Amino acid sequence: MRWSRSLQLRVVGTTLVFSVAVITVLGFFLVQQIAAGLLQNKERSAATLAASGLTLAESPTAFPAIAPASPAASDLMYKILIQLPEETNSGGTGAAVMINRSHGKNADVLGWYKGPYRLGGAIPADLINRVGADQQSRGNREPSSEPTSFEPTSLVPADGGQPVPGLAIGVPVGTEYQLYYLFPLTQEQQTLALVQRTIIVVGLALVFLLAAIASLVTRWVVVPVRQAARSAQRLSTGNLGERMQVRGADDLAALATAFNEMAASLQEKMQELQDLSHVQRRFVSDVSHELRTPLTTIRIAADVLFASRQQLDVSSGRSAELLQSQLERFESLLVDLLEISRYDANAATLEPEPVDICDLVRNAADVAQQLAERRGAKIEFRLPAGPCVAEADRRRVERILRNLLVNAVEHGESRNTVVTVAGDRDAVAVAVRDYGVGLTPGQENLVFDRFWRADPARARTTGGTGLGLSIALEDARLHGGWLEAWGERGRGSVFRLTLPRLTGTEFAGSPLPLGPDEADLATAAGAAEAVMLEGKGTSTGSIAAPAGSTAAAAGSTAAVSGD
Amino acid sequence: MTRPPETACRPVRRRLAPLALAACVSVAAAGCATIPSGGPARSLSQPQNEVTQGDDFPQLIPASPGKGWKPVQIVSGFLAANASFAGSNAVAREYLTPGQARTWKPGLAVTVVTQPRFSPAAATLPHLIGQSGTQTQGVVVSGLELATLTAHGQYQIPSPSAKQAISFRLKLMKIRGQWRIVNPPKRLLLTKSDFLRVFQPRNLYFFAARGGTLVPDPVFVPLQATVRDLATDLVSALQQQPLGTLAGVTHTSFPPGTKILGVNIEGPGAIVNLGGTVARAGPTVLDNIAAQLVWTLTSPSYGRQAIKSVKLEVDGHPQSLPGSVDGVELPSRYSGRVPRPVADGGLYFIGKGGAVQALPPSQAAAPPKLVLGQAGTGLVPMTSIAVTPDTGERAITGTSPGAGQRSIAGISADGRVVYFGALTKGASLATWRPGGRITSLSWDTSGDLWLATGHGVWLRRPGGKAPIAVDVGQLLPGERVTSVRIAPDGVRIAMIVRGNNGAQLEIGAVTLGANTASIGPLAPIGAGIPDPAALSWYDADNLMVLARPGSVRAVLEEVPVSGGQPTPIGAEPHTISLATAGSQIVAGLRGGLLVTLSGPDGSWEPLGRGQDPAYPG
To answer: Tell me, what's the ipTM?
Structure first.
C-alpha cells in the first residue's frame, strides 16, 4: 500500500488531518467569540437605550402616580411609548410598555406596543416573569439600580416573512410598569455570516497551503533519504564504488558523508582481504610448482634406491620403500593442491561433451574393482538398460566417480559396494553405497572440507591427501550439479552425484534418493533419518553433506594417485 | 564529523509547523484588519426594502380574560380589547362564548363613547331556560356617544340636538366556570382616547365634478402596525366611489372593474399594482389615477406623511406617465390639483372711512393702498367684505374684468344690502337685496357669490342671472345658517348653523344644477366649540373658527374637517373678525385694530388699523 510506503504521503496526510482539525477548532472558537462579542455589543447598546427610555419613563412629569388598573394607566403607557427614544441604526426596534402582570392582574389593558414585528411571542414569557420577579424583589429602591434582563427571541415581521433572530430586553419601571425593547439581530447575523464565510474560505486555503508546504518540506528530507537507500542497495549488491552526493552542511549532508566514509572503509577492507587471499593462492600455487622440480629429482633418486633395495640392508631397504611411498603421496598432494589452487583462482574450465555416464562409471570402477578384490569384496553395478547420456567433462566426472568408489571400497569394511545410476528428463545421478562404518551426524558436511579427517589421530601416512572430496565437490559445482552425502554410524554411507543433462541448466531434483536402499529399510529409525536427510540434501543443493570417515582420506588418496 | 542525532526532534518540528503557521497567519490577519480612519469619498447606495424607523403604529396589548373574573371585569376587558385589531380582534373574541367568537363580525364600524360605566343587572337568556346549572348575568354599559365611525371610515359626530346617552345590556353566561359574553355589540365600542390611538385620519382624494380638482374626503383608517396595511386600505377605498359627504359630487377616476393586485412599500415609496379594466384605460385616466394615489398616499394632512412617492404599475408593468421621474410620481407634480387658500392675493380690509384697502403680500413693510373702483372710495360703507379668489375669472358684474382683476362683495352696514363689483379703476358697485339680514358671504372659484341670510342661503351666479335659493336639506326647524365659507375646491362648504341649542359647525358638499343648488348631507364637525361665530378655510383640511367673538375669552379653533378634535389657538381679547390663507392668520379686534399671528411663539403683532380683514376666497 502506498500509504505505508511513502513517508511524504503520510506526512502530507497527517498535516491535512491535523490542520483541518486545528482550523476547525480555531474557526469554531473564533466565530463563537465574535458572536459573543457582537451580542455583547448589542446588549450594551440595548441597555443604553433601555436606560434612556427608563429615564424618560421615570421622570416625574411622564410618570405620575396612577393606579395601574385604572383607565388612565393605558393613557400613561401610550404616552410613554410614543415618547420613547428609538434606536435608528439597527433597522427597526420594537418597544412595549406594559403593566407588571403580577400586579396588574385585573387590568384590561396590559400595555402598548410599537414595532415592525408581531407582538405575539416576541417578548418571551420567561423574560416577563424575570422582570416581574426583579421588580418585586427590588421593592422601592433607587431607580438607578434597575436590573436589566435580556433574552434572545425570534421576531416575525408584521407583514409576514421569515422570522429573524432578535434580542428582547426588559427593565422594570417604578413598581408597577415594565419597559421592553425588541432588537432585531439581522445586522449581527449578517456580520457573523460574513465572518463564517471568510473563515471557511481562508481555512480551506490554509489547509491546502499547509499540505503543500508539508509536501515541499518533506520532499527536502525524503529525496536525500531515498538517494541514500538507493546507494546502500547498490553497495550491498557489491558496487563498492557507490557514493552519495554531499550538498551543504546540514544533517542530510552529515548522513551522506558518514555513508560515504562507511563505503570507503568497507571498500578498503574488502580490497585488503582480496589482496591477501590472492597472495595466499599465488603462494600455494607457486610453492606447488616450485616443489615439483626438486621433487622430480628426488623421485628419480628414490626410484633408483627403490629399484636397488634388494641390495641394501634390511633397514635401508625399508627406508627406500618408505621413501617411495611417501614420495608418491607427496606428489599426489602436490597435484591436488595445484588443482585446488586452480579452482581458487577461478582458472578451472569445463570442457563439456555428451557422454554416457554408465561408461564413465565402468571406467572409473576399474581401479576400485582391483582394490575391492584385494579386500575380498565386490562392486555391484545397478545400471539402466540404455545409455545415460549427459553433457559433462569426461575427465572431471571420472575423477569424481573414481574418488567416490575408492573411498567406498576403502571404508567398506570388505563389504560390497553398490553403484546405482539413474536418469530423468533433466538430470542423471550416480549413487555410491557402502556398508562400512558410516558417518556420525554432522559429518555429512565436514567430509567435503579440505584436509578434514574423521579421526585426527590417524596417521598421515595412511589415507589420501584430504583434498579428494573437496576437489570432487568443486568439479560437481563446475557442472552445475550436486554432490551430497548420507551416512549413519554402523550402517554405511551414500554419496550421490547429480548432474544436469545439459550443463548449466536447472533441475528440480535428483532421480535417485539419498539414503539407505530398500534392503536397509528394516530399521524404521534409519529410514526416517534417511528421508530427512534426503530432504535436506535436495533443498541445500550443491552444498552437500559428505560421508567419509577416517578411511575416506585414504580412499581418496588412492583415487587421486590413480589420476 | 559525527553530529548528534536530530531525528528525534524532526517529526515534532514538522508537526508543529502547521500550528505555528496558522497562529502566525491569524495574528497577522488580526493585526492587519483595522477600521480605516481615512480614504477617498465614495457614494453609498441606499439600502432598499428595509424597515424604516418610525413607520410603526402603536398597538394595544389587551389582556386576555383572567380566571375567575367577575362579569363586570369581563365586559370592561372586552371593551378594552376592542381596540386591538391583531388577528381580527383575536383577544376580544376570547371574551365571547365560543359560538359568538366564531360569528362576531364587528368590521370597522365604531361607536366612540366616553369612559363607559358598568352596572350589573339581571339577565335571562330565553333559549337557556330549562338547562339546569347555567348561570347568566347581565351588565349594563352606559355612557355618552361622542361619535360614530361608519364602516367606510366616515367620522360622524352627533348633532347637538341628538340624544347622546347610550346604554345597552350585555348578557353573560358561564362557560366552564368562566363568564363569557353572549351578545356582543355589532359595532366596536371605543373610548375617545383609544379611538384616536388606533384610528388615524387620512384623506382620500376624489375628483370634483368640474374643474379637474381633487377634493379631500377625510376618513379614519385603522392603524394595523405597518404602512403597507395602511396604504392597502387607502388604495382599496379609492377604488370605490366616495361614500361620505362627497358622495355624488365627486368621483373616482378608477374605472369600474379595476382590481388591486398589490400594494408594496419599497424604501420611501409605494408601488401600486393595478389590474382588471384599468389595463384598457388611456393615459389621461392613468394620470388621474396617479394623481389620486399620490395625493391620498403622500398627503401630510392630519399626520405624518406615510410615504413620499408612488410608482404605478398596471398588471405588473411600471407605467411611465408623462412628467414622471423614472416612473416615480412625486407629490410636487400634482400639487396644483388640490386648491388651497393662498395669501398671494394680498390682504383686503376696511380701512379708515369705510374704504377698502389692500395690503400686498410678502411686503409687510409696504403701506396698504386703497383698492381701485368704488370700493376704495369709502363712499359705500361696508362691513364683512369678500374678494374673489382667482384672477381672470368671470364675475357676476358682467363687466368681465381683465386679467389680474378681482371682484369684491360687501355687506352694507345695516346688513340688508350686498354691494358687489370689480376692483378696477372706475368700476362701480352693484347692489343686491336678497331679503333678510345678511350675515355672511363667500366667493367660490367659479365666481359664484354665496350669501347666508336669516332666511337661508342664496347663490348668485355670474352672468347676471337671477339668484338661486340654495336647498340646505338637513336643517331642522328653527335652525339657520349664519355663516358660509366655500372651500377653494368649490365643492365643500363650511357653515355655522345656529339653532335652539346653540351654534354648530357643519360641513357639506355643493351640488349645482342649471338653476338649482343644494348642499348635500351635512356633517357636524368641531364638537365642543363654544359659540362659533366667524370661520375661514385655513388650508384644504382645516377650518379656522373664531369662538366667543368680541369677548375677553375669544379663541381661535383650528378645526379639522375630518371631524377630529379642534386645536385651540389663543386669540387676542375682543377679536371679532378673522381671515386666514396659507398659514397667515389675521384677526380684527373690536376698536379697529388688525393683528396677525406671527412668529413661532404664537404671539399676535399689530398689522395696522382697520377691520373686517379678508383674503381672496
So the answer is: 0.71
